[in-house]
């Protein structure tokens, strides 16, 4: 894992001091709320329906047990004893007081964490593959590149007042576990003729106008990575629309200019920037890489899984994935107990996950963008002990990538932008399928719920997507099918008229019945949908 | 009261700045005012006759002026570069990094706050127009441009 040196620490400490001063000026009235707003947002502090919400950055979703314990302590000391893991691999606290915010940032800085640029019209926390460093299919660990870009984008003087927020994801395998092409910039580290480089995909995004990012450059040499990103951002900062916040994301610029013209402008800017010496030397990338060296794995190839406990076997089959090293797996801790709030964890659960990571996963945890936690390096022989501890704490749901493993935004229960509640819908759907026992038979089925058109719940990218809207003062839910955020990326299509809260739960059930009837051997829901199209589903829903 | 913060030793230009369009049409102006939608690169062929570029920030959240400034400095402009308009103390440090060396804020700034804001950051992570050595250069014992 990356460790701060004195420079990194000093930057974060300085930010805490700066924010403390800004909060003081807001509290004494010398800053107006309008002036304070962009400053607090760049420190992750939102004003929500009931209280301030603080979003803490977890760069590329990686943290250690000491940091997980610190997050738990913050939940206890400043919030109501829990936190919410987000689709940007971050954590947010929903019940924060402005007077405490600077103290929380100071507590975070003690464990090399911060809330820098987790909001605002700037470059946000950089996300990555949650199996980085453990996945068998990666050409390299993507996280050093994400860390290089984290430092470049932190306090960037030119790109802190962009037209709109800006999200970057970095992956390094053909499989896409980070929704890379639904980002403002998606970077895939690739190997060409034995050399690593970066493919740049620019102009993807969800929100009210979902778009899949086109590839604008197939190979940027690693010693030009930062320069190329800088060129992409400069073209956006100069020409992105500022007249309408709903058309201000880079996807609109790339769409309106056309990918070819946007690329031409980037390449022109890139040629000029190459002369400016903005690129860190490769030695800096090498320095960062030393922090991501593989842990010392035991010779565990001969380990066998004891499947005698059926509940454990079910969990092991569903919630663990192969590791690049024989005898190890990556284990997924589900934060989706049926009936629970997707992504929430109590302080006690956080501490337990931290302790288990220390004992069984080389002291590493990852936050998934699907709002679960990964213990990336677990020896097969330790799995039963691990599961026993998780299960006792309500963290043993065997439902990874199933219909119970729902992404849901906070919705109208918390969010000031929402039109409808997301959490109760997620709870009802998960409970319905858990009670009927159908979850396992349905296999991989990605269901995503957003409480408004801004699409924080990724509904466009759900095999089944649900969008909550306000219809004449009543919550109404639109159903869509066929989305994917993985390497087979696609955008979901709306089935037809919307449903009320209970109606949409029934509609999801109906849709899964069509799938069960029509599926061929080995087909996932999304495969069946792509083969048979929308019509049979529409007939079942509205016919 | 017009409060101009200036971080240069030379004499300030005595006449008002003209728009980019007017500037390109006439040859005798030495001061030009860039609006957020203007292309700063249009000035590049004429840099040697410019002594002052004002860049207007009608609203502090419109960040195009940060790119305008860096583009001018990257092209070698060494005259005065002034941020005018909705210029607030919390943006000054980034503006300095992008090459601004004078400020004409709509509302006067507290001198102590300005000093604190500009002295705040001991180091920087990236190259910009202010020639400060980024942290990566310090780490690898390279003084860079500093």
UniProtKB/TrEMBL annotation, chain A:
- A Gene Ontology BP annotation from the UniProt entry: sulfate assimilation
Where the record annotates domain Nitrite/sulphite reductase 4Fe-4S, the positions are 119-270, 402-541
An example of a Gene Ontology cellular component annotation for this protein is:
sulfite reductase complex (NADPH)
In Pfam terms, one family for this protein is: NIR_SIR_ferr
Task: Cite the InterPro entries for this sequence.
Answer: NiRdtase/SiRdtase_haem-b_fer (IPR005117), Nit/Sulf_reduc_fer-like_dom_sf (IPR036136), NO2/SO3_Rdtase_4Fe4S_dom (IPR006067), NO2/SO3_Rdtase_4Fe4S_prot (IPR045169), NO2/SO3_Rdtase_4Fe4S_sf (IPR045854)
Q: Its domain of life?
A: Bacteria
Its cofactor is: siroheme; [4Fe-4S] cluster
The Gene Ontology terms for molecular function here are: 4 iron, 4 sulfur cluster binding; heme binding; metal ion binding; sulfite reductase (ferredoxin) activity; sulfite reductase activity
Residues annotated as domain Nitrite/Sulfite reductase ferredoxin-like: 52-110, 333-392
Keywords attached to this Swiss-Prot or TrEMBL record, sorted alphabetically, are:
4Fe-4S, Iron, Iron-sulfur, Metal-binding, Oxidoreductase
- By what name is this protein known? Nitrite/sulfite reductase
- Recorded source organism is Qipengyuania marisflavi
From TrEMBL, chain B:
At the top level, the lineage of the source is Bacteria
The family database entries (Pfam families) matched by this protein are listed as: DUF934
Q: Which organism is it from?
A: Qipengyuania marisflavi
Q: What is this protein called?
A: DUF934 domain-containing protein
């Amino acid at each position: 894992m990356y460790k701060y040196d004195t420079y990194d620490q000093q930057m974060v400490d300085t930010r805490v001091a700066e924010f403390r001063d800004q909060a003081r000026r807001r509290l004494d009235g010398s800053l107006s709320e309008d002036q304070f707003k962009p400053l607090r947002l760049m420190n992750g502090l939102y004003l929500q329906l009931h209280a301030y919400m603080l979003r803490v950055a977890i760069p590329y979703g990686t943290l250690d047990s000491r940091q997980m314990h610190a997050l738990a302590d913050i939940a206890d000391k400043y919030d109501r004893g829990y936190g919410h893991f987000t689709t940007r691999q971050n954590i947010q606290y929903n019940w924060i007081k402005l007077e405490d915010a600077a103290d929380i940032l100071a507590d975070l800085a003690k464990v090399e964490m911060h809330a820098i640029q987790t909001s605002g019209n700037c470059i946000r926390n950089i996300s990555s593959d949650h199996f980085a460093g453990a996945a068998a299919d990666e050409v390299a660990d993507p996280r050093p590149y994400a860390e290089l870009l984290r430092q470049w984008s932190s306090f960037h003087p030119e790109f802190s007042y962009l037209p709109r927020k800006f999200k970057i994801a970095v992956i390094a395998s053909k499989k896409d576990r980070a929704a890379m092409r639904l980002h403002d910039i998606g970077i895939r580290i690739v190997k060409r003729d034995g050399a690593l480089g970066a493919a740049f995909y620019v102009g993807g995004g969800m929100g009210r106008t979902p778009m899949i990012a086109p590839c604008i450059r197939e190979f940027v040499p690693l010693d030009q990575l930062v320069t190329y990103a800088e060129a992409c951002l400069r073209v956006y900062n100069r020409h992105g629309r500022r007249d309408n916040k709903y058309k201000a994301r880079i996807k609109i610029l790339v769409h309106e200019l056309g990918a070819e013209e946007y690329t031409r402008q980037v390449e022109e800017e890139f040629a000029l920037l190459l002369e400016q010496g903005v690129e860190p030397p490769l030695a800096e990338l090498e320095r960062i890489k030393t922090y991501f060296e593989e842990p010392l794995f035991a010779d565990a190839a001969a380990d066998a899984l004891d499947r005698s406990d059926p509940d454990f076997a079910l969990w092991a089959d569903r919630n663990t994935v192969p590791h690049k090293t024989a005898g190890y797996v990556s284990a997924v801790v589900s934060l989706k107990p049926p009936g629970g709030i997707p992504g929430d964890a109590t302080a006690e659960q956080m501490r337990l996950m931290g302790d288990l990571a220390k004992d069984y996963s080389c002291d590493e945890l990852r936050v998934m963008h699907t709002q679960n936690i990964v213990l990336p390096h677990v020896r097969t022989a330790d799995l039963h002990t691990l599961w026993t501890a998780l299960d006792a704490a309500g963290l043993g749901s065997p439902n990874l990538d199933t219909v119970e493993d729902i992404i849901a935004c906070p919705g109208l229960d918390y969010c000031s932008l929402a039109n409808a509640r997301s959490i109760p819908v997620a709870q009802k759907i998960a409970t319905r399928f858990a009670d009927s026992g159908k979850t396992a038979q349905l296999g991989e089925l990605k269901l995503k719920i957003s409480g408004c058109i801004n699409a924080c719940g990724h509904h466009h990218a759900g095999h089944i997507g649900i969008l909550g809207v306000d219809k004449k003062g009543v919550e109404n839910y639109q159903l869509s099918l066929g989305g994917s955020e993985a390497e087979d990326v696609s955008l979901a299509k709306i089935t037809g008229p919307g449903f009320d809260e209970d109606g949409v739960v029934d509609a999801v059930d109906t849709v899964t019945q069509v799938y069960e009837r029509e599926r061929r051997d080995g087909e996932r829901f999304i495969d069946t949908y792509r083969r048979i199209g929308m019509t049979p589903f529409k007939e079942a829903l509205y016919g | 009261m017009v409060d101009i913060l200036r971080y240069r030793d030379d004499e300030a230009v005595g006449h008002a700045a003209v728009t980019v369009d007017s500037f390109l049409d006439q040859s005798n102006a030495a001061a030009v005012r860039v609006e957020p939608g203007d292309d700063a690169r249009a000035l590049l062929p004429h840099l040697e006759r410019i002594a002052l570029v004002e860049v207007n920030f009608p609203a502090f959240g419109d960040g195009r002026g940060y790119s305008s400034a860096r583009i001018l400095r990257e092209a070698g402009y060494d005259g005065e570069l002034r941020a005018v308009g909705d210029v607030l103390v919390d943006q000054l440090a980034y503006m300095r990094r992008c090459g601004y060396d004078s400020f004409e804020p709509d509302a006067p700034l507290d001198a102590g706050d300005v000093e604190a804001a500009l002295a705040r950051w001991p180091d920087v992570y990236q190259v910009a127009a202010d020639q400060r050595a980024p942290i990566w250069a310090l780490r690898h014992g390279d003084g860079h441009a500093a």
